[in-house]
Amino acid sequence: MVRFLLARPIAVFMTFLALMVFSFIVFRTLPISLLPPIDVPQIVVKVSYPNASPEAIEQNVLRNIREGLITLNGLEDMDSKAGSEVGTIRLSFNYSTQMELAYIDVNEKIDRIANNLPEGIARPEVIRINTSDIPVARVQVVPKEGVDEIEVSLLAENVLKKRIEQLPGVSLVDINGKKDRIIIVEPKEEEIRALGMTQENLISAIQSGNTDLPGVSVKDGQFRYYLRLATRVDTPSDIESLPVSAPSGAIVPLGKLANVSYQTQEMLGYHLFGSKEALVITVHKQAAAKMNELIPELKDALELFKTDYPQVDFELTQDQSNLLNAAISNLQTSLLFGGIFAFGVLFLFMKDYRLPLIIGVSLPSSLLISFLVFYFFDISINIISLSGLALGIGMLIDNAIIVLDNITRKRELGLDLFEACVQGVDEVMSALISSVLTTLSVFVPLVFLSGISGALFFDQAIAVTAILSVSLAVAFILLPMLYFLFFSKSKKVDDGEEGKFFSAVLGLYEKGYDLVFGNRKVALLFIMLLIPVGLAISLLLPSEGLPEIDKLDTTLEVNWNEPISATENRDRVVALMRHMEGGYEQAESDIGVKQFLLFDGENSIQQALLYFLFSSQDQKNEQVIKLEEFIEKNYPGAEFLIGDAPNAFDQLFNSSLPYYEVRWKDLAAKEPVPEDKMGPWLSQFPTSEWERGPGLEKESSVVFTLKAEKLATYRITVDQIQSQLQKLFGSFLITDIRRFGEVTPVKLKEPQTRFEDLLRNTQIAASDSAYYTLSEFVDFHYDDHYKNVTADKTGIYQSVFVTAENPDAYKSDFIKWGTDKNLGVSMVGQYFKDQENIKQLIGILLISVLLLYFILAAQFESFIQPLIVVLTLPLGIGGAFLVILLAGSSLNVMSAIGLVVMLGIMVNDAILKIDTINRLRKDLVSEPGTSAEEALELALHRAGQIRLKPILMTSITTILALIPIIFSAGLGADLQRPLVYSVIGGLTIGTLTALYFVPLAYWFFVSKKKLKEA
To answer: Any alpha helices (H) in 351-382, and if so which ranges?
Structure first.
């Protein structure tokens, strides 16, 4: 094939050129994202039930929804949590479930259930979780001093949101911190009572004045007119002019009985930018959009907003494109330094500037053609697929160096240019194909991991497969053709003498070879002992998900653990911000209940999430200590967590599951176990290392008790008392004014005094027209009750989070503890998911090793020789572990990727060396006068000399290309540094040992059998 193609160099060149042009066109159409658009198999149902207790939300709302959703196809798990005024149900599905259909199914069932929910409750929100739901940036909208905040909310909702949604690539715009206008009616109690009236008269007058006659029409000859009541109200002055009838028959304008005015609706949550109240607009991109084009468009739009709306300040925060830019920057850096160092190393070893130029052409060509595969597999350019390309670049350079070195060596042996190109490629073709297949056999099976990990590895596996497959085509077709074209006019053939540098390196290798083969048994034993020692270093290494990154931003999650209002929560956060003022570059906070449509976390009035961006690491460390001291001093009961600000990776990989949770259900009562019983039971729990779960958390509350005997004596109904209490302590809605989609609620003013005073001062009319205070009929007492009610598929449960080092060791004790108390006990959590993933990973890696062995066995037609290749891998892994340990790094996702890169190169070198030994043995044995033993000795020696140059060139080129990352700063360098340590450690130590281990192992494990056959 190579001979046929080389005979037509112009046709081959033009074909490649056309392919690259087509690839470039395709590349420009590929979507650029932070992460692949993965369907996370979860749906969240959110319920908002104002002024309802957790028990009321569980009994009246969540239980009905759970019963209605239990029959969903593919439903794996269901958990619900009812808190004050809010409730959530999280549905987890099998990973094979089509989430588009599941989302439609959930919405249909919610519509059917809606009729069974309490009157007046808003339809539950259904949120589908997707990686594209992670916002790419946040726009801060800050009203200037004296500007009406409600007008700014309307501006954000009706103008800014729509203008941002029109930007190309934007899928959704979400807002938090909006303020709504309502009309408040504040009754004048003395005037009302003087006229013998009640609040009901006012309420009835307002409701009557806002009635409509939908669908009522009259016929007038050939015309038909639709009727509209002229008494409809629109403004507070309209309401004040409404007539109210007194029992005496007098008609009084409502304005004399109540003050009516526009006010801001009570907020359940706030957004702050710094210490100022603001709105935040989160921007979400379309799956097919290019993030690197969307963010500049958004920044341009913000500049226009600043000009068009001078009454508002705008800032862009938490720009997630920084991660993507870091990945692209790293790839560019790898290509740039890879090219520069490849040129330098090749020139040093090969003494000809044309060879580096050939590699300089082949690298970008392979990369560009790889994007064609992306197009056909519908894969976006994202951090995962880019890391796959980065994986393949090392192998790509490796293949190019091996082919060029072999062609050059053939020319030095005296072959003409054409034959040198043909035989140079043919000789290494099968070995290079095997090396690529072995790399893929290690990597591709990881696609079959379950969950998000498998979905992410799919993009990476396709990227690796694409670049390695293309690199083979380039190495077998384009490289020999370019070599032929570049050297066709060169009449001078290299005399085969090595340069001074490589001659010195070869001399060192020869001394080492003589030393090792002079003490073969000792040398083999020493190298074999290095394998367990190197692998044992892994026990000293800490492990984590992503590498520790020096981030300049951080988050503070705080739960005040007190039944405070959203306003008090805001005031505390403002005080904290002012205490920190001048210590941060940027700060924002979401306080209380979030208004985001896509927010799937816990909504609680007493919680807040704060974000800080600092100018330096030192400033960050200093201010974090200041934060801790402020909260501990002023709010000792608060729970808080300070951590790095989550990026898209963290949001995707962070599990909502606790690590190890012990759940129990009361098998008799089917309701939460009361605290007076639960306390003694928990004191008998099998381990003392535990924390209360959501269903055991407590908060203070006030319990009202009606005095039934007094109500009966004075003939006051329970409904009267409940209605009056609702007007006092609830947000009593009189009516809604609707105009062209805009809804303005009309509500009674909520008193701001203490509830004890309200009970003593508020009067209620009895049947004898006398007035009595509410405190005559209502008792109250303070009580600690459960803050949340938690439930799963089978009903209400309570739980604790076990923090012991080996929690599963207590499993039988947990079950016995529950059985003794008639509790059904079960264990759930991330611990079990991790165990399952580890078993899967071990199984998949075993399959990978078997695949690798079968491929090599077919390549070498031997069962023993593949074992030599497999045994070189622990040497590289041990070297990688040693450098990771010395550098103070950890085992993480990036260092694991580095191991795969390094093993791919080492496998390649070992395969080519064994292939060369086999070929030389075959040639030498056929020479007259050469015994089988002499042929083996010569083959081992010559193969080492022949393969020394490409092995060293590949390793040195890869190492030198990566070294600049160690000394770089920034997010991208922090991410890539563990990968660099793995590759440098593995290639440095692994290559040095493998240079001598392969011939040694070949001598001991292969020689005897082959000699007998000879």
So the answer is: 354-376
pLDDT at res. 339 = 62
Mean pLDDT of 322-345: 68
Distance CA 402, CA 814 (A): 61
Say yes or no to pLDDT of 409 above 50.
Answer: yes
* Residues 23 and 98 both lie in one domain: no
869-887 average pLDDT score: 88
The percentage of the chain sitting over the pLDDT mark of 90, rounded to a whole number, equals 14
Task: Answer whether residue 457 shows pLDDT above 80.
Answer: no
74 and 17, same domain (yes or no): no
- Asked if 395 contacts 468 with a C-beta cutoff of 8 angstroms, the reply is yes
Q: Is the pLDDT of residue 386 over 90?
A: no
Percent of the chain whose pLDDT exceeds 70: 87
Look at residue 288 and tell me if it is in a domain: no
Q: How far is CA 23 from CA 9, 29, 185, in A?
A: 21, 10, 68
Stretch 659-674: mean pLDDT: 87
Alpha helix stretches (DSSP H) within 450-592: 451-473, 479-487, 500-518, 520-536, 566-580
Q: pTM of the entire structure?
A: 0.71
Residue 56 shares a structural domain with residue 18: no
First to last CA, the chain: 33
Which of 102, 131, 160 represents a domain boundary (last residue)?
131
Question: Are the CB atoms for 147 and 174 separated by under 8 Å?
Answer: no
Do 483 and 532 lie in one domain? The reply is yes
pLDDT of 814 over the 50 cut: yes
Residue 222 belongs to a domain: no
Q: What would the two tokens of residue 1005 be?
A: 């494990």
How distant is the alpha carbon of residue 292 from its chain centre?
A: 19
Task: Choose the final residue of a domain: 94, 112, 131.
Answer: 131
Q: What is the DSSP letter of 775?
A: G
pLDDT at 970: 59
User: What CATH code is carried by the domain that includes residue 60?
Assistant: 3.30.70.1430
Is residue 875 located within the same domain as residue 996? yes
Tell me the H-state helices in 714-785.
718-729, 755-761
Structural domain boundaries, residue 514 = 2-32+324-489+499-546+834-1013
Measured distance CA(707)–CA(727) in Å, rounded: 19
Beta-carbon count within 10 A of 970 CB: 14
Region 551-565: mean pLDDT is 85
Residues 78 and 91 in one domain: yes
Residue 919 lies in a domain: yes
Provide the 10 A C-beta neighbour count for residue 494.
14
Give the strand pairing for 181-187 and 742-748. Answer: parallel
Given a contact cutoff of 8 angstroms between Cβ atoms, the answer to whether 734 and 184 are in contact is: no
Stretch 214-234: mean pLDDT: 68
366 and 457 fall within a common domain = yes
**Cβ neighbours of residue 109 closer than 8 Å, sequence gap 6 or more:** 68, 69, 72
Has residue 730 been placed in a domain? no
Same domain, 462 and 366: yes
Lowest mean pLDDT among 407-421, 498-512, 570-584, 835-849: 835-849
How many structural domains comprise the chain? 2
Q: What is the mean pLDDT of residues 596-601?
A: 69
What is d(CA 390, CA 896) in angstroms, rounded to the nearest whole number? 14
